[in-house]
Amino acid sequence: VGVVYIGDVSDKGYTYAHHQGILAMQEALGLTDDQIIIKRNVTEDAACETALRELVEQGCQVIFGCSFGYMDYMAELAEEYPEVIFSHCSGYKSNETNFNNYFGRIYEARYLAGIAAGLKTETNHLGYVAAMSLPEVNYSMDAYFMGAKSVNPDVTMTVKYTNTWYDPTLERQAADALLDLGCDVIAQHQDTAMPVIAAEEKGVWACGYNADMTEDAPKAHLVAPIWNWGVYYTEAVQQVIDGTWKPENVLLGMQEGLCALSPISENCAEGTKEKIAEVEEQILSGEFGVFEGPITDNEGNVQVAEGVTLTPEEILQVNWLCEGITVG
To answer: What is the spatial distance between Cα 42 and Cα 31, in angstroms, rounded to a whole number?
Structure first.
């Protein structure tokens, strides 16, 4: 098993969450340490191709690439090495033989985190540190904001893009800039805990991402949408072992256990736990689909008509921002 990480497992966020999933898979399937080869801190450029080729040469039968920008490199090498399985996180490319993509309906947990933010804010001004202006980031941001707005109609949100998935310094600078604007709850689509740490130092609140970040900011952290990547890694590697793996794209959510919400911290407003439990039950039962119309974007266009609910496949293509969100 080969794995390519964009960061280090010490980031307390994105790479840490993937690594916990790999460890869970290893334990569940009884693999030894020498059966798993990990490449850390691999940038989304020629370094990715080099890492992938090294994993192939080292005999990996399945390779997981854990960052969006690895997609084209994995697509190319999948054609070159049809005997090796390439599985890519968060992308949209695949083939019919040995290349698939996997991700989760993280927008479900994002919506729930937004409820915590909407109930906690005192300024009604939320801040969001975002990596890239891509569908994955933007639909997640929309879901979070709609969750906040569902319990606080007066809320607005300012977003700052860093144009990088992993850069602790830039993540911190973007968070500080939002805090200077008066945002009193910071959320993020970034790989490290720097935005929640910035919020704590400012004496306000934050929603983390990828993993429970309460330990990093115990006085500020509200709740975080988190990933249980072991659900997918265990299933996929078992299929490789059994010879039953198929090049099918995978999209799992809270119902399947891939996405979840971290424990609700004591920093949350009174009634948060009950409200989140109520909506979570509706999501799990299929009664509520998050992107339910009417939804208007921040340019005044109706993107989802009244009575319409976007399918998961349609949500993955959302690249507009909801009314009430401003890019700062």
So the answer is: 24
Three-state SS at 269: coil
DSSP-derived secondary structure for 310-322: --HHHHTT----B
Q: State the DSSP H helix or E strand holding residue 112, giving kind and residue range, or none if neither.
A: helix 106-120
Q: Residue 99 belongs to what H/E stretch?
A: strand 99-104
104, β-bridge pairs: 252
Predicted structure pTM score: 0.95
Alpha-carbon distance of 95 to 99, in angstroms, equals 5
- The CB-side HSE value for 135 (13 A sphere, CA atoms) comes to 13
Beta bridge mates, 227: 259
Q: What is the pLDDT of residues 148-197, one digit of tens each?
A: 999 999 999 999 999 999 999 999 999 999 999 999 999 999 999 999 99
Distance CA 245, CA 17 (A): 24
Residue 261 forms beta bridges with which residues?
225
Residue 326: φ, ψ to 5°: -120, 135
The parts of the chain modelled with pLDDT lower than 50 are none
Which residue pairs from 206-210 have beta carbons closer than 8 angstroms and sit at least 24 positions apart in sequence? 207/113, 207/114, 207/116, 207/117, 207/144, 208/13, 208/262, 209/13, 209/14, 210/13, 210/14, 210/16, 210/17
